[in-house]
Specification:
Layout: H1 2-6, H2 14-28, E1 34-39, E2 44-47, H3 49-54, H4 68-72, H5 75-91, E3 95-103, E4 109-120, E5 126-135, H6 137-153, E6 160-167, E7 172-178, H7 192-202, H8 208-212, H9 216-224, E8 229-237, E9 243-254, E10 261-270, H10 277-280, H11 285-296, E11 301-305, E12 311-314, H12 316-321, H13 335-340, E13 359-366, E14 371-382, E15 385-394, H14 396-424, H15 428-443, E16 447-454, E17 459-467, E18 481-482, H16 487-496, E19 499-501, H17 504-507, H18 513-520, E20 526-533, E21 536-544, H19 554-578, H20 588-600, E22 605-613, H21 616-623, H22 625-642, E23 646-649, E24 654-660, H23 664-679, E25 686-694, H24 699-722, H25 733-743, E26 747-756, E27 762-772, E28 778-779, H26 781-791, H27 794-814, E29 820-824, H28 827-830, H29 835-845, E30 853-858, H30 866-878, E31 882-888, H31 896-900, E32 905-908, H32 910-913, H33 920-935, E33 940-944, H34 949-957, E34 962-964, H35 974-983
Parallel strand pairs: 27-29, 29-30, 30-31, 31-32, 32-33, 33-34
Antiparallel strand pairs: 1-2, 1-5, 3-4, 4-5, 6-7, 6-10, 8-9, 8-13, 9-10, 11-12, 11-15, 13-14, 14-15, 16-17, 16-21, 17-18, 19-20, 20-21, 22-24, 22-25, 23-24, 26-27, 26-34, 27-28
Amino acid sequence: MELQFLNGTEGFDTADLGALYATFQRLLAPLPHYVFIKDTNHIYVAGTTFFAKTMGVSSLSEIIGKTDADILGDEGLATRYAADDDKVFESGENLLEYVAPFPDKNGEVRYGRTSKYILRDLGGNPFALLGIQVDVTQEVRALQRYNKEIEHLFTLPEDTYAAIFFDIDTWRIADERRRPIRGYSIPTFASIKDFLAIASAQAQGEAAVFYENFTPDHLRSLYENGRDSIVYEYNRTFMNGEVRRIREVYRFVFNPQTNDLGLMLTIRDVDTGSAGVHAALSDTETAIFDASISQLSISPCYISDIETHELLHMTNAAMELYGISDVEEYRGRKCYEVIMGEESPCSFCPNALLTEGCEHIWDHFNEHTERWYEKRSSLIRIDGRACHLMIANDITERKEEMSLLSGLLGMEDVILSCVRMLAHGKDIDTAVGHFLKAVGGYYQASRAYIFEFDFEKKLLSNTFEWCREGIDPQIGNLQNLPMDVVDSWMAKFNADGEFSISSVKGDLDHNSEEYRILEAQGIRSLMAAPLTQNGTIVGFVGVDDPVQNEGNLMLLRSLSEFVQVEIDRRRLLDYMSYTDSLTGLKNRNQYDRALKEYSRRTPESLGVVFAELNGLRGLNETYGMSYGDYVLRKTAQILKRSLSGTVYRINGDEFVALIEDLSRDEFEREVLALRQALSSEPECSVSIGCAWREREEDTQSLLNQAGEMRTAEKQSYYHTLLENPNNPVANAGFPGEVMQEIADGHFMVYYQPQVDIETGKIIGAEALVRKTDDTGALVPPSKFVPLYEMQGVISYVDIFVMKEACRAMRKWMDQGYHLHLSVNCSRVTLLEPGIVDTMRSICAEHNVPPSAITVEVTESISKMDHEKLRELLDTISSAGFTVSLDDFGSQYSNLSILSVIDFNEIKFDRSLVDKLEENRKSRVVLENSIKMCHELEDTCTLAEGVETAGQLDILRRYHCDYGQGYYFSKPVPESKFEEFLQRGSF
């Protein structure tokens, strides 16, 4: 079987294929799910035992090597499956989430939601399909039942005016049917807005509050909090002026396929004589009390002031229900205090909904009495005082019977809804989050969660959690708990399968760790069911403080197995989606996900290591792809072994490691260990850049810094490479092109004089690079310098300028001139390892003292870590060079750099000089900047962009030391600058 799977797969050698096959078997075999792999000839080459049994065979060996035509005995289905496979191979695109029939082992037709993913060899060629299938037979059949239910609801009894179906998600009328009754008809509604306007008008205004809350968000919140219907009864004025009492029943209808929520409204005629009790109530307090006592004494009933919530009257039945023996115990007290035991008005108080002539009917669970009541609330007036008359009927027994019946009848729909949420969430966190929300809603629980075991470490952790609004999450407090905390639970799982704790305080030993953990969370009761994998309990799913369906473990029991299967499936897909198949490291998708996470939180510290394998292209071309892949895998192993953080392969030859919460010293020790490990493996030539900061919120800046240092280190590799003309890749790629252009004379150095502002004497010049194209025309630096910086080859140009400047300086020194020459060094060049030694060797080659050379660094270098920057510039200064901070005052201005770094010279950007003559603010800024620099030890000032005599006069007045600009001269060739030297001054 192994050779069947391996042979004919291009781009792999036997060892690679064996490892790949072993990986597939390790990932697939344990899954209790429909997973299989087919080759390009539609032959099964791998799969799960679970899949084989579903296909009606006893073991996987009866599937391997066969096609669907061999197994199914249904030529039509086999042809359809083969066509689906061919579609994937021909298009090169995965075929996702499509529903198709399949026969089970009993020959019954079932339905599966299938996804087929392309598997490619190392050459990028498809060689097999990975198929993952979810049995959605119940979901398909539930959709059929749903459609039948809608048809049933649209069947209009004789007392029903109309049935109207609203789609809550789109907020449109999806369908409506109507019939005239006793000569009356319901108008046709063009939209929900039309319906609300007409309904409010015909209800004589008393329904305004009800319809005001008739919004998608409000209705969905009612459904999510357990409401299955809304009943509303009021008087309606019909077209002929007759007033009749009608009842509107709104029933929520959930579509298990689309996850859409609908609302079915039926409008029914009600006997107008049912107003009964309201008509009997008088307008005087005494009459109301008498009527209440005489007519409602057998029912709990009370009257309260709508504005103050003060209780005015309670029937004997109500007093008995709430444990009140004397009128004085409630008279003058608040209804919410007596009835609910609360300190403030109830959140569900219907007072705001009450209008005259309209009865508000609703069901409510009273936590104070722990009973269910049907409440009928009306607005009455007692001597002009607006009061709330509430009649309560205990419906606990009926509710429990209905709950049990609806639980049994509706369980399948709830399960299917949960299954669909698990199957369709965009990622595992979203999918399981929606699932737990549905479970929590079914039980009206405060919290729903999943715990998973780590058997190797003997720990358990809360891995997923949903909390009802107002409940504090606990997942952060429930990580890495010892497994023996749930020893008693494991015993119950093994004995009974699932269990419930009705009272934490009453059922548990108060000295146990189990009790301590539950009590700390304020949990009063809970229910839990085990999650199993291959017969082993690997975790559990549970709910805290269930209010509805309490003690009914059927839902948890039914869902527990599917939950674990779906989590395994999701994690398999996550592994494939977020793992680099060649190295086993996290891939670019996971890297992007990690960066998004850093946008939401900031670690205590973050270290970044950028690593790039040198010469991968040359290795592949010279020794073959297999050898290049071997070196990549070996490099990945060294990175993972040496660094404590997460390592990602983000590109063909690029890796990034993100290391959290290490001190700088610990981070640098890990980087040193990495360099040492790589140095012992000669085939793994790697350029490394690293950066570390505390509480870094700008992660991208840190990544850029590490990337630049990696690019700078890469230059050393290129220099070494290009020094060896026999190397097969020595002249390949962009570095070779730049070196060739330098050799062909396309680059030259111009010099722009720098002048003592007080005396006009030439004290030096800035060496500036120029380039010509193939026609001899000058190319502006702005056209090629940014490109070379991006390509990482700017150091070749910088070093060329340094060599040319030192050559010219030697000639001028021999002629008796004493000058300073400024050369620009890109940030990338300065970060290159050994750059200072390179500059010093260039000076030695031309017998020019480093003190005659000023190294200009742009102010953008302030973005570097200041400690690293200080070390770099100290090294440059120690070598004898002077250091100038160029472009000070430009877009990157950062005064803080002057407080931590010593510069010999500050060059003011031309933007500070341009408007000196006409702009007072420019003068103030520059004057004070010059004063500040002069107060710094051994720091001189130079102004760039001097173009007028007026600017020069102002600079002289502010005691600026030196000037440079077109007022003196534009950059000129070496011969022209020598003419200026002979003149001596401007």
